[in-house]
Write a structure and sequence with these properties.
single chain; about 160 residues; mainly alpha; Serine Threonine Protein Phosphatase 5, Tetratricopeptide repeat
Length: about 160
């Protein structure tokens, strides 16, 4: 992340912060994860990257849900869903719908949860694996993809 900051590459920094958030979340550090996702969200907003914003919002939703704050989680996932639908990002749409279903289930609204599970099930798997840059960020080689995505974004700025 320091390399991106030193190079002035805000998109790269945003992606790196998102990955740090995911790592913190997997280690059970919800507050730290949320902080990284918030920073990532701000940088993606600054760059106008709607898919990146959706990813950061979904990350925030996941952090809130893991911290037993289902109401906060559903708000973040709903915002992510709106952005994902706006730009046609099926991966982030699926992630948002899954997060919304889990949040509504935790709140006790099984009807809303069912609605989002059904919408999630209707998304073809092929739409999640092909063509979308956000989907590519979720594959196991994601750590190698970040510098490539950031380099492309930074080269495009100059």
């Amino acid at each position: 992340m320091a390399l991106f900051r030193d190079a002035g590459c805000r998109p790269g920094e945003a992606f790196a912060l998102g990955y740090l958030g995911e790592l913190e979340l997997r280690q059970g550090r919800h507050v730290q994860a949320a902080g990284h996702f918030r920073q990532s969200l701000g940088l993606h907003r600054e760059a106008g990257n709607c898919s990146g914003q959706a990813a950061a919002l979904n990350g925030l939703g996941e952090a809130f849900l893991a911290a037993s704050q289902a109401g906060q989680a559903s708000a973040r996932h709903a915002a992510a869903l709106a952005l994902a639908l706006q730009v046609g990002d099926k991966h982030e749409e699926a992630r948002a719908r899954g997060g919304l279903a889990s949040a509504y289930q935790a709140i006790g609204d099984s009807e809303q949860a069912r609605r989002h599970w059904q919408a999630l099930a209707a998304i073809p798997i092929s739409a999640l694996a092909t063509g979308a840059p956000a989907a590519a960020r979720r594959v196991p080689v994601a750590a190698r993809r970040v510098p490539v995505a950031a380099r492309r974004a930074c080269v495009a700025k100059t």
